[in-house]
Amino acid sequence: MATTLESTLKRIRDHRLPDLDLGPKAVHPAYDGLSILNVPSSLCRWLGAPELPHPAINHAEFDDLASGARQVVVILVDAVGLNLFERWLEGRAQSLQPLVSSGLLGALTSVVPSTTSAALTTLWTGRSPAEHGILGYELFLREYGLVANMITHAPASFEDEAESLAHAGFDPNTFLPVPTIGPHLSEAGIEPHAFLHVRIAGSGLSRMHFPKVHQHSFADLPDLWVQLRQLMETASDARRLIWGYFGNVDYLAHRHGPGDKRVEAEFARFADSMMADFINPLSASARRDTVLIIMADHGQVTTRKDPHFELRNHPDLLRRLHMSPSGENRLAYLYPRPGQMEAVEEYIARAWPRMFRTMASGHALEAGLFGPGRPAKAARSRIGDRLALSQGEGYLWWAAKDNPLIGRHGSITADEMLVPFLMVRLDA
Predict the structure, then answer these.
(1) What is the mean pLDDT of residues 199-228?
(2) Considering only CA atoms, which of 383, 330, 391, 324 is closest in space to residue 357?
(3) Nearest-5° angle of CA 54, CA 59, CA 63?
(4) Comparing C-alpha atoms, which of 244, 312, 240, 309 is closest to residue 274?
(5) CA 175, CA 183: separation in Å to the nearest integer?
(6) How many other C-beta atoms can be found within 10 angstroms of the C-beta atom of residue 140?
(7) What superfamily in CATH does domain 2-127+174-301+415-425 come from?
(8) pLDDT tens digits, residue range 273-317?
(9) What is the DSSP-derived secondary structure letter of residue 411?
């Protein structure tokens, strides 16, 4: 296990995207074989479906462990960075130690931006953010003339109006310019299943990601594990991909910071319940030819609430922009007014020294920051003219409301980009 983690980490740290100076401490997304972009092709390979356009995970030990698998269970815990995962394994989540000892723990990178909407869309399309076009939490959708929240599918400034973009003609079933993997798996004779909390089951984002996927909703952790175990105990001639998503860690980390004891306690609750209600009671027949994967989509960093990061306190910057930034608070897309590009960059450098790295958005797209493949037609308009990539604890808060967040993500630091990939053979 240690060898796998060390070798994947070394390869990630040595990896650099050519023609992009992201700073000495940046983690470059390893799209060529050690990124979450590579997970869908690996799942297809292990279950016998045709592989997708981008390569599978480039680490032979994972392929060896998955040999002969007819059932792959992927549990994604939102916002568990590798550093926290390792720390919690030695702390309150020691119940996972038997899985770590018997399996393989490696490191992968998230995608850019390191955020849920981009990462989950990559995992359910097998395409990079550049290709699928979901390039952040808030995006300027030129075709609708507004900035949209890509989780709630509502205008970014709206409160409690989930899926109201439908009034403008937005259809989550047809919005993506690339296919999803549910039909791809089904055509190969593989049953895809997804377990989602009742709050998000059937949402616009779920409809976007899960065509031809059997969807199951759960109310709490025991409900998830018992339902999942019951599915696995039901014999099937078909190979199966079973996906489960748990979002409470991300929720708490945003509000209290990823290092907060409440966040660790929630992950420990997840781990203990998984072992007690799922792993330990699972029958030998359900374990047969089954691989379990525990992974994350991105990590988080701790920031501080500081009015200096709030753009309402920087009118001289705002007047140089066509509109407020979009994207992520830690990877902001800027739309400078004509002739104001240099002034915008100078203002950022002076107001927040060494906290942001700015670059031309078009160059970042062409150089592969947002992933390989042909960019979606709308990608260029959605990332503005300049990027502001956060370093350290910097961020930009532009919403016209109080700032409630301590934990954040979206940029390219190790805490945000490095995620665990734990793979265990349940019939070992």
Answers:
(1) 96
(2) 391
(3) 90
(4) 244
(5) 16
(6) 25
(7) Alkaline Phosphatase, subunit A (3.40.720.10)
(8) 999 999 999 999 999 999 999 999 999 999 999 999 999 999 999
(9) S
The strand pairing partners of 422, in sequence order, are 105, 294
* Among candidate residues 37, 21, 13, the one with its CA nearest the CA of residue 358: 21
Global confidence as pTM: 0.97
Q: Measuring CA to CA, which residue among 255, 279, 254, 253 is closest to residue 266?
A: 253
Q: List the structure tokens of 332.
A: 């902001």
User: What is the band of 2 on the pLDDT scale with cuts at 50, 70, 90?
Assistant: low
Q: Tokens for 412?
A: 């390219």
Dihedral of the alpha carbons of 248, 251, 256, 259, in degrees to the nearest 10: 60
Instruction: Count Cα atoms within 13 angstroms, Cβ side, for 137.
Output: 16
* Confidence check: pLDDT of 1 > 70: no
Q: Which residues touch 273 (CB under 8 Å, ≥6 apart)? A: 221, 222, 225
Collapse the DSSP code of 112 into the 3-class scheme (helix H, G, I; strand E, B; otherwise coil) and give the result: coil
Give the residue range(s) of CATH 3.40.720.10 domains in the chain: 2-127+174-301+415-425
Q: Residue 331, CB half-sphere, CA atoms under 13 Å: how many?
A: 27
Domain with CATH 3.30.1360.180 in the chain: 312-408
Q: What angle in degrees, to the nearest 10, is found between the helix axes of 116-125 and 39-47?
A: 30
Separation CA 200–CA 205 (nearest Å)? 8
The mean pLDDT of 16-45, rounded to a whole number, is 97
* Six token digits for residue 99: 């899985």
Answer positive or negative: Cα dihedral of 159, 164, 170, 171: positive
> CA 170: distance to chain centroid?
23
- Are the C-beta atoms of 216 and 193 separated by less than 8 Å? yes
Neighbours of 34 (CB within 10 A): 23
Distance of CA 12 to the CA centre of its chain: 17
Q: Considering the chain, what is the average pLDDT of its residues?
A: 97
By the 8 A CB rule, do 203 and 162 touch? yes
Looking at domain 312-408, its CATH architecture is 2-Layer Sandwich (3.30)
Q: Pull the structure tokens for residue 333.
A: 């897309």
- 278, 246 Cβ separation under 8 angstroms: no
Residue 35 and residue 37: Cα distance in Å, rounded? 5
